[in-house]
Amino acid sequence: WVPVSTGTAAVVALIGGIVAFGIQARIAEQRAAELEQVSVFQGRMLETLDPALAGVALGENFIKAYRDVVNSENGSEDSVIDNMVEAFQAELNKLNTTDLARSFVDDIQLKPALLAIEREFGEQPAVAGRLYLGIGQTYLKLGLFESAISSLQKASTLNSESLGVDHISSIRSLYWLGRAHRQIDDFDEAKRLFQLALDGHVRLLGSEHSLTLDVMANLSDVLLFTGESDEAERVVKEIIKLESSRRAAWDSGERSLEMILAVQRVGMYLMRHKRYSEAEKYMREALEAREVTLGKDDPGTLIALNELIILLLEQGRLLDAELLSLDMIDRASRVHGSSHFQTSIRLYNHSVILFRLGRTEEAEDYARRCFGIRQEVFGPEHPQTLAAAASLGMLLQSQGKMSEAESLYVKSLASARKFLDGKDMTLLLLSQRLASIRITQERPEEALFLLESVEASTVEVMQGRRSHAKFLLFLGQARSRLGKFSQAESSLLHALELFKQFDDQERFAIDCRSEIDNLYARWLRESPSEEIQERANTWSRRYSQ
Fold first, then answer.
1. Of 151, 184, 217, at which residue does a domain stop?
2. Residue 10: pLDDT over 70
3. Which domain holds residue 534?
4. pTM for the full model?
5. CA 113, CA 105: separation in Å to the nearest integer?
6. Within a domain: residue 423?
7. Last residue of some domain: 184, 210, 228?
8. Burial class of residue 152, CB neighbours in 10 A (0-12, 13-18, 19+)
9. Is the Cβ–Cβ distance between 532 and 526 less than 8 Å?
């Protein structure tokens, strides 16, 4: 028997408690109020659930258990035991412990819990509906979205049939089901569910209730993805109007947690709609109130600080963001420890800020620290470690440290191909960046192979992003050098159109224009024709304009 991780144990205890309570609830439906208390408790527990950290702890427990077994069975010298444990750990590192933790919770606890609900509460739909809701929320937190949708759909159906469509449990089920569909990018269905949930929340709780405003916020976000930006703006204005109705109480000194959250939400809504100066006022007030009320190192305070940093970055205020980011690293180190995954996130974010400031050597230092922590915590082949490797490699490459960057890319890409999905962003970025090095090494065949092997996935995952534009630039460069001029022309012109959408990509836009000039020069040398000359002339006129 291997002890489970702390995060996994929390879920085990949580689900076990819910099912055990449900068995008691069979006695009578009047226990529903108590069941609601369990639901609230579950929500608080889920806030601390982190599958990645649960996986780390699970791996650590495996290693500890293995060491204990080896020690008791062999009684060997410490050096021999250490070598055996290191070999075991090397094999264990080939596993994705995050997925292992998810599977453990699902197979050992959630699936049996679902069977228990069907068996024990088949004739008590009200109780079963609320239990399915809890299971669905847990699946959602674990990132198992299809399973979440299945459980939440059952919860919605059972709650509506047994309690009525206007019962708060029925309305909340719609909201959570919408959240699950949002996670799989099913925006139309998420919009439909959020609209139904919003109507119900307004009827039952009123338009100013914090839960109602939360539904409105989720609806406004989804509307942006369905192309209804005007409607999203209208919803946000309504949220701000409703939240502002509490302003008098805030100005008079009330600093309840609900009030702080309300002020914080307004800041986030304003930021999403690029009303930065107004947003900053609200977000700073919320941060200061959290620091006074809950403390500087409270997890919610750290979230508020991170949101303010994001706001500053959105405005290009990099120096202001840098100062707050350093503060964030100090706080995260105090709360979690200097070698914790959460601290590595703060180190990574700081490296991005420094890179944008042009201080690449400093950025590299922070990226190395992030990479080192993730190697230690997760092992060398974990998705989080590979993502850190991709970022560190980019910084090395930007400084001309091509040999080290190439070595890191080659090793990381080999692991990514073994352990990551073909559409994983890290795998796509590693392929793209290694290809860019191959182009500078005048190895266009290898570059083209790398790029074309992920072309379809890149278009699907990165469509319209900066990374998509860079991919097209590198693809065009490789094709041009191999004499595939027509294909290269299409890739490069498309890349240039994308680069023009981003103010911070001018350097790449310049490289792209230069590459198009070189393309037509090569094309005319190898296949001179009036048609190609006219294309080159059209490009020259367009470029001069």
1. 184
2. no
3. 458-545
4. 0.66
5. 11
6. no
7. 184
8. buried
9. no
Pair (471, 351) in one structural domain = no
Mapped onto helix, strand or coil, the DSSP state of residue 253 is coil
Q: What is the pLDDT of residues 146-193, one digit of tens each?
A: 999 999 999 999 999 999 999 999 999 999 999 999 998 899 999 999
Task: Please compute, for residue 543, the number of CA atoms within 13 A of its CA located in the half-sphere on the CB side.
Answer: 16
Contact of 315 with 271, CB cutoff 8 Å: no
For residue range 514-545, list pLDDT tens digits in order: 999 999 999 999 999 999 999 999 998 887 76
Nearest Cα neighbor of 496 from 517, 471, 473 is 473
Question: 525-535: b or e for each residue (b if 16 or more CB lie within 10 Å)?
Answer: eeeeeeebeeb
Confidence of residue 20 (pLDDT cuts 50, 70, 90): very low
pLDDT tens by residue, 298-333:
888 998 999 999 999 989 999 999 999 999 999 999
Spatial separation of the C-alpha atoms in residues 458 and 468, rounded to whole Å: 7
- Burial category of 487 from C-beta neighbours within 10 Å (exposed 0-12, middle 13-18, buried 19 and up): middle
State the Cα–Cα distance between residues 40 and 36, nearest whole angstrom. 6
Cβ neighbours, 10 Å, residue 330 = 14
Query: Are residues 139 and 16 part of one domain?
Result: yes
- What gap in Å lies between CA 125 and CA 131, rounded to an integer? 10
